[in-house]
Design a protein that fits this description.
Blueprint lengths: L3 H11 L2 H19 L11 H7 L11 H12 L21 H13 L12 H16 L6 E5 L2 H16 L3 H4 L7 E5 L4 H9 L7 E4 L1 E2 L2 E2 L1 H13 L4 E7 L11 H11 L2 E5 L24 E4 L12 E5 L3 H6 L36 H11 L1 H23 L4 E3 L7 E6 L8 H17 L6 E5 L2 E7 L7 H20 L2
Helix pairs in contact: 5-13, 6-13, 7-9, 10-11, 14-16, 15-16
Length: 490
Amino acid sequence: MTSLPDVLAAIDHDASAEAGGRFVTLVADYFARAAAGDGPVSTPHTAGAIAERFAEPLPRTGGGLDEVMARLAADVLPDVNRLYHPMALGHQVSPPLPAAVWTEALTAALNQSTAVWEMSPVATVLEHQVVRWMADLVGFGAAAGGTLTSGGTEATLAALLAARAHALPDAWRDGVGAEPPVVLCGEHAHYAVARAVGQMGLGTRQLVTVPSHEWRMDVAQLAAALDAQRAAERRVMAVVATAGSTATGSFDDLERIADLCDAHDVWLHVDGAHGASALLSAAHRHRVRGLARARSLAWDPHKMMLLPLAAGMVLLRDGADLERAFAQRAPYLFHAPSEGEDAPRVWDLGLRSFQCSRRADVLKLWVALHRYGADGIGALYAHLCETAARLHARLAARDDFEAIHAPEGNILCFRWAGAGVPADEAQADALTQRLRDRYNQSGAGWITTTLLDGRRVLRVTVMNPRTTDAHLAALVDGLAETARRLVAAM
């Protein structure tokens, strides 16, 4: 189709329930097949092989919907990562809650930009309400505020910008100066912290990394680091603690870290992108005890609350701190209310966000909470953690695997320790990497690796509530058999 009438006719056709139903059917079929374990967990193909499939000229004329649906079914779906598959045990990406998935179509159809209230009269109000709910869960008071973000990386950047505004009130105008302040974080902190420090112009040399003890920030070492900064007369802008680290899912001791931050009058930010959802579980919320004492928090509902990407959040104990972080005016958007007008500026979210065009991602979070309930989502959180604990017990009962740590959440690191493991550490690490790659290429499952104390280890993240003990047994047996074959071929 090349003419305007043809394009308009196609638009009208595609707006129908019949056309939309074809996409719904495609998704529902994916849900059912993947949840049943039908097909490989991921692709055996290389990126180059997949790229060849899509190496085609720019479509200048549109085709029929039949053709588009056929391409989705034949060329896209066969080689995606099937996160709904019970053997998908790799990254911290959720098999999303169905009601939230269906809400995505509504969000896209409405296409509200939540930077200012007049562009999104309902969603901006909903975001304020959902932020209030989440801040109440943390234990922040009435002054708390925040906003949704694209994820934990943006949330941590926003929080540290607020910390910078607190430490250097004129930094927005004047910059950080010749002696920028210091940020402290644990050695297992997410790379988002270093990225934020670099992006803010502080320079990553101002990032002080505190050693860990049992995969958590060593509080005694943090105390020493803070004393050293004070002795050197260097200003500390923030301490970043972690609730649910990426590598091991470990939780820093927030109470003791908060004690130190209070004693040194230092901003405490908590990266709870993965682990803050422990607040929803009565069995696990003790792991974030002390969280209410933080000045700011990054939280990703698209992780352990099982929402589709993207649904991050930054919360501050004092919401005004976030507005000070983005102290900018745009007169065509942010304006003082007219006499008698309900103050729109109170609702405008662009005043506290890096983004201007902001998708109404709050809708899927609001729908998920109403459909499944905070307690229901908390039950899912606990179930995923219990599944990881059962995997740990299964590995501990064998002599051909070594668990590196007991899981505090849904993440577990381990290595194969069967006959034939090379004594040389470099060779053993290479075997671990080949084991992961070969197992994943088989399509039987999907796991990741990471480095702990400089050694390559296998890593499992339990994100799918459909993963059962039978799937755990298949994982362990499959890894063991693959490892034995690799050793035999050495």
